[in-house]
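Hey, can you fold this one?
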Amino acid sequence: MATKRATQHDSNAVAVDRISELPDHIIHHILSFIPTVEAVQTSLLSKHWRRMWYSVPALHFSQFSIGRNFCQRRFQRFVNECLIRRERDLLNAGVSRFKLSVHGNRFRTANLDTSINFVAGTNVKELDVSIKPIISFQFYSMP
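Sure. Predicted structure:
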């Protein structure tokens, strides 16, 4: 694989952040296609991005894609904190799409109910809850 060598011209180039120049509604649309944990990580990019994820129209939480070092309690806390921060945001335009994928007997029913009730209050258009049961005859009743 070829590597690019730095030239005198390259060292004088100024990095331009073209993504931050996009209108917020375009950035929100782009962020709506990535998992919420990654959208939250974009808040580290700059002051402009710090609260950008608060009003992304789609939330996608997947316990399966976060990784093994993200323990159950920490995942639940992350989901709850995201919803609380969105609720406190004055510019929150609501949630159009909400996806939650969890291990059945590891995610507390009360937390699941809270999450679903929150997005139901935002007139969510698409609700996708995936519960992978650990015990074969385990059921969950929607609130």
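The chain has a mean pLDDT of 77. Let me know if you want another pass with a different chain boundary.
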